[in-house]
Design brief:
Shape: globular
Helix content: 40-55%
Distance between the termini: 32 Å
Structural class: alpha+beta
Number of strands: 7
Radius of gyration: 18 Å
Length: 204
């Protein structure tokens, strides 16, 4: 969301009414020149997200799942899991960071997460456990992808849904022995989610 300027985001959204940028960069649906800290920006993001949920643009699976996500570009692939981890692991140091965050950028994402009541920005993390990677590659080799398309930029996107209870348990047990996660990209998003978590715990 933050590698493009507002004009570029508006151009993308004008061509795609369901672009997630309507949530992550919701100023695209407001008048140009709006103050970037205006509460209406965050309220618009939340309104769009919950409207899309009501319209079944977003549909939640009936049971918790893991998702394998693969990107392929120029013959090179990158495969990982889409899943949740506890915000408390950031505070405890299990999730390792290597960059400092900017206060104003963190404040923006805190307001976004808090108003939407959702962590809308994925965080790219790495971990050291070959068995998990082997499991994911074996699953992809033995199951058809539920999503498989080539985007306008030529990158192939593939998604596998892991709903099998035994497979989910195996992955959970494997991650239980992983000592640390390392933020590769998304330091502000991670810090903001942890800050909202801490704020809500304090208000209970």
């Amino acid at each position: 969301y933050d590698v493009m300027n507002e004009a570029e985001a508006r151009d993308i959204c004008s061509k795609n009414p369901l672009s997630f940028l309507h949530i992550d960069r919701s100023e695209v649906d407001l008048p140009q020149g709006i103050d970037p800290t205006d509460p209406l920006i965050y309220e618009t993001a939340a309104s769009t997200m919950y409207r899309w949920i009501a319209e079944d643009v977003f549909v939640q699976d009936e049971t918790p799942c893991f998702y394998i996500y693969r990107l392929i570009r120029n013959g090179q692939s990158q495969t990982g899991l889409v899943c949740c981890t506890a915000a408390s692991e950031y505070e405890s140091g299990i999730i390792k960071k290597h960059e400092l965050t900017r206060a104003e950028k963190e404040a923006d994402r805190i307001r976004h997460v808090d108003t939407c009541n959702a962590q809308t920005g994925p965080i790219f993390m790495a971990y050291q456990d070959k068995s998990i990677a082997d499991f994911c590659h074996a699953w992809c080799d033995s199951h058809p992808a539920e999503v498989d398309f080539v985007a306008d930029d030529g990158i192939t996107h593939q998604v596998w849904v892991i709903a099998d209870a035994d497979a989910i348990t195996q992955l959970q047990q494997s991650f239980a022995s992983v000592p640390n996660l390392y933020i590769a990209d998304g330091h502000h998003r991670c810090a903001s989610a942890a800050a909202v978590c801490k704020k809500r715990i304090a208000s209970q």
